[in-house]
Predict the 3D structure of the following.
Amino acid sequence: MADRRPLIAANWKMHKTPDEAFRDASSIVEMTQQAVKTVDILIAPSFVCLERTAKALSGSGVALGSQNMHWEAYGAYTGEVSASMILACGCTFVILGHSERRQYFGETDKGVNLKTLAAVEAGLVPVVCVGESLKEREKGETFNVLDRQVQEGLKNVPFKPDRLPVLAYEPIWAIGTGLTATPEQAQQAHEHIRAGLEQICGKTLANSVRILYGGSVKPANIGQLMQMPDIDGALVGGASLEPADFASLANFGQ
Ligand code: PEP
């Protein structure tokens, strides 16, 4: 099995002011000084908090990411930000195609693909989110949904060994609901996603791509999830808002 460095990512969604983000990111840095040596840690605050969060993370080894971006470089796109803007704020990662973006803001696989292409071109690492709804799972469509989202989202995306895209498997029914996929359910989906990636980029690169699990990850369940062979980290919403909880997730292996 390829040696994949774990990635534990915080998605702060629409929470925290710039001052609160600075305070909480500083606490996380303080509490993860050991973990950063072996685990990649990422914080994705809202756009308005990027600059202050970057200051808190400076020199720490904890990475900064954005929760979204537009695919165009600039232009008349009210309310949007571009890759160069988030790069200038210190981002190295960008979360794309989160189910909340798909569900509430009409994001499509095509849009996710355009954003992913633009992110990689700009030198950002995209964290591309995929996952089925409860209805789709109950109808036995989970793998079809994942195949479509992965194939369309990553269409023509170059797999550069030093900047491989990250995938996040986030079953929609487990996001913010307190329901977590069992480690076995998550592993099954991750294994399927990796097999699909193999068709796209070949076995070696597919084995190097990190696949995160997201959906009510908490200090109490991260240990079991991380024991699964194809789970390479976590994308965390609710439990990332409290610095001590997020730090304990990042410290899962300590
Ligand atoms: C998420 O929003 O990506 C997420 C997984 O949220 P939560 O951890 O709250 O389920």
Remarks:
- The radius of gyration is 17 Å.
- The CA atoms of residues 27 and 220 lie 21 Å apart.
- The chain has one domain: 7-250.
- The pocket of phosphoenolpyruvate is lined by residues 11, 170, 175-176, 214-217, 235-239 (CB under 6 Å).
